[in-house]
Amino acid sequence: MSANCCEHDHDHEHPSASDTPRYRRVLWVALALNALMFAVEIGAGFRSGSVSLLADAIDFFGDAANYGVTLAVLSMGLAWRTRAALLKGVSMVGFGLFVAGRTLWSAAQGLPPEALTMGLVGALALGVNVAVALMLYAFREGDANMRSVWLCSRNDAIGNVAVMLAALGVLGTGTPWPDLAVGAAMAALALSGGWSVLRQARGELGRAGAGQAKRA
């Protein structure tokens, strides 16, 4: 999506067009589902020894926090929503770096995870994330704050499919490498998405500052 989606000065002064009861309801539902799946996956990740499940669990926690931040700034001006997007972009990059480190640690251990738990929990998580992504699809073309919400949900659904494929790979090979490969891929996806949000948010913040300078 183009970073120039909010060109007009009035967008910098007023709340987002997405500040509607419908959008708020969607965000509250998404927050609750992500918090629930964090609890499920963090337990399953430690029980199975799967780095990809642990990565997905942390991602669910980060998304729940992101939805909360989005709800907090939804009625504020573009500058505040953009600052929230900057925070979320940084958190996505931080998540990517953590997963990369955890993947390296697990590679050094060399123990395969429990494939059945990976597959079942990955399928459950996919169902939740697809439902959330469908609810948020109509709001994907907004400002950087809205874009970050959509990207989180999209990335999660992609990650869940990868976890399920990794479970099949672990089951078939008896090695941890499919799980580790997915962990590395999820780290790269988080880093890419976080950088995209940060780049758009910086552009929007710069235009907001320029608009305020003109009005002054």
Automatic annotation (TrEMBL):
Gene3D superfamilies found in the cross-reference section: Cation efflux protein transmembrane domain
Annotated compartments: Membrane
Pfam families registered for this protein in UniProt: Cation_efflux
Primary residence: membrane
Keyword Transmembrane helix in annotation: yes
Residues of the Cation efflux protein transmembrane domain: 27-204
Keywords per UniProt: Ion transport, Membrane, Transmembrane, Transmembrane helix, Transport, Zinc, Zinc transport
Recorded topology in the membrane: Multi-pass membrane protein
Chain segments annotated as transmembrane: 26-44, 64-80, 85-105, 117-137, 157-174, 180-198
Protein's UniProt name: Cation diffusion facilitator family transporter
Species: Variovorax soli
